[in-house]
Structure formats: structure tokens, C-alpha cells
Inverse folding.
């Protein structure tokens, strides 16, 4: 991550993912709004464990798992738990998995 977020004392009104309006703290360094929804982002290890469970259903090589993990690691937005929601992470994860593995998106989502 490029910024070590520090919350401001002030808050701004902003829409959430579900179109509710809430007060959000923001980072005093970069200005990024903090996710205040109940849908908190998860660390990369959670998604790697989902990949290992996916191996029970599809034949996935170690190389494919490494490629998926590397792409998720390189995506700064995916790993920035300050602002990203779990719902947004799911969309990114499914898109990346489908890029490397010919798998049904509904199966991947059921494992999340």
C-alpha cells in the first residue's frame, strides 16, 4: 500500500454502497474515505484459502494459483482494507479467477 492511512478528526457525509448516507472519516495524508459499512474487506490469505477449496472442484495448477495470488497482491485497491468493502473484493477476486481458470462464477461465489 502506498499510504499508511491516518484518520482525520473531521468526518464528511458520503453515500455508502447501499445508498445510505453516513459520516465517513478520511485519511489526512491521501484523502481516501474510510469504509464504514458492515461489509469490511478481508486479507489476502482469506482469498488464497478459497482458492485451495476451489481445487476440490476444479483441477487448478500451482502456477495458476500463483498467478492469481500475484495479480491480487499487485492490486493496491484489493489490499487496501481502509476503504474497500468485501463486496468489491469479491467482484475483483471472481474476475481474476475467471481470467486464469475456466470456472463458473457462481461456484466461486458460493465458496466465498
Amino acid at each position: 500500500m502506498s499510504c499508511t492511512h491516518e484518520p482525520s478528526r473531521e468526518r464528511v457525509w458520503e453515500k455508502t454502497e447501499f445508498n445510505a448516507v453516513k459520516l465517513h472519516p478520511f485519511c489526512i495524508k491521501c484523502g481516501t474515505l474510510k469504509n464504514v459499512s458492515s461489509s469490511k474487506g478481508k486479507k489476502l490469505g482469506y482469498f488464497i484459502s478459497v482458492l485451495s477449496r476451489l481445487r476440490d472442484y476444479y483441477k487448478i495448477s500451482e502456477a495458476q494459483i500463483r498467478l492469481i495470488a500475484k495479480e491480487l497482491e499487485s492490486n493496491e485497491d484489493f489490499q487496501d482494507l481502509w476503504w474497500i468493502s468485501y463486496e468489491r473484493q469479491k467482484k475483483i477476486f471472481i474476475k481474476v479467477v475467471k481470467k486464469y481458470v475456466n470456472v463458473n462464477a457462481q461456484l466461486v461465489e458460493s465458496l466465498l
Remarks:
- The helical segments are 44-54, 62-74, 76-79, 86-100, 105-111.
